[in-house]
Amino acid sequence: MGLSMNLDSYNAREAEQQHLLQVYGQYDFEPVAAEGVHITCRDGRQLLDFYGGHAVASLGYAHPDVLETLNKQAAQLFFQSNAVALEVRATAARKLAEFAPAGLERVFFVNSGAEANENAFRIALKKTGRSKILAVEHSFHGRTAAAGALTWGAREKWYGFPRTPFDVDFIPRDESDAAQAMVDSDTAAVVIELVQGMAGAYDLAPEFVKSIDSACKKHGALLIIDEVQTGIGRTGFAFAADLYGLQPDMLTTAKALGAGFPVGALMLTENVANCLGNGDLGTTFGGGPLASALISTVLDVIERDQLLSNVQKLSRRLQAACLTGPVNKISGKGLLLGLHCSGGAKSTRDALLDKNILVGTSGNPDVIRLLPPLVLNDEHVDELVAALATI
Ligand SMILES: Cc1ncc(COP(=O)(O)O)c(C=O)c1O
């Protein structure tokens, strides 16, 4: 990479422990720089990144278009709030609406996936005048009061609030009959994560998704697709909703949308948006100039460099070759894949890290998760496959 690092004895984990809350299980390396799909660590190691900082680094690191956009926009107009209209924000919203499934014409920019979901749930309750939202077992929707309420297992593990802000229930995964029975005229919305990321890249059965969609239509409930992890090309489609042939009432996205800059978006149909007026929603930072400029750049680069077909091609290559070494099954879509490992995910992750390849784990103790940058290439895939074969 041509970077000369200061390989001193500084230990970031120890330094963090002095003041930062200790709420994260952390890897044992410290990134000090990154370029393309490689991370340089303080000890001089170079890691091939199949994790992408939780699916965020959509264009990898130090991407020239991202750097140019950041520099130009920061110099021109660093920040203005939603109290004023901005060309850069209007452009980002137009491009995102063009990129999204048909019908999602309205955009509300926020700062994170949880914030996007929080707003989606609130709008569903307001639009329908109902008080219950359903999610699917094993889904993850975020850490805030409403998003956490709809996250499977949260209340037993970390939720912390004494009650949920609305009625909540969970549909058993891939059980179409249960979906038909549970969605009723009290249901404001059903939220679905089409490929459940945290659960280990579990792709929901299309028949199950269709049954939820039809039950929502039958009972006037809204369909919300959480594409915080699956969106922005990750599945080889602009959104997983395209892959599943869905036209949701709302869609949320974040992570890859800003290529590493904190940003989220809620997208709505005109029909849903009609229930909102001046003062109904708000956020200080959402849709700021830097975030907006980066959204446009990410979408432009995905189109210009044909990254959707790159994702599809690499996904095929991975699925054809990764059944080797400890891997006995592959789930997921595009570049959100779960490698099911005999002997467990953690030991495979550690063995790969010893070979300078970074992968993620998941809520499933047997599944390692691949969420690499969309700019990955064939050689990177082959490097992972070769490493797996020796484990
Ligand atoms: C599917 C899904 N929804 C929501 C979230 C929450 O996003 P954030 O961490 O940006 O609040 C995540 C984060 O991992 C996610 O994977």
Number of strands: 16
CATH architecture of the largest domain: 3-Layer(aba) Sandwich
Q: Compute the CA-based radius of gyration.
A: 21 Å
The poorly predicted ranges are none
Could you explain how this protein is built, in words?
This protein is an alpha/beta fold and 391 residues long. It folds into two domains: 102 residues, Aspartate Aminotransferase, domain 1 (Alpha-Beta Complex), CATH 3.90.1150.10; 240 residues, Aspartate Aminotransferase, domain 2. 37% of the residues lie in helices and 18% in strands. The chain has 15 helices and 16 strands. The strands form four sheets. The chain has a seven-stranded mixed sheet, sandwiched between helices. The structure holds pyridoxal-5'-phosphate. The site of pyridoxal-5'-phosphate (PLP) has 15 residues, from helix 5. Pyridoxal-5'-phosphate binds next to helix 5.
In short:
The protein is α/β, with parallel strands linked by helices.
List the keywords.
37% helix; 391 residues; Aspartate Aminotransferase, domain 1; Aspartate Aminotransferase, domain 2; alpha/beta; single chain; 2 domains; 15 helices; binds pyridoxal-5'-phosphate
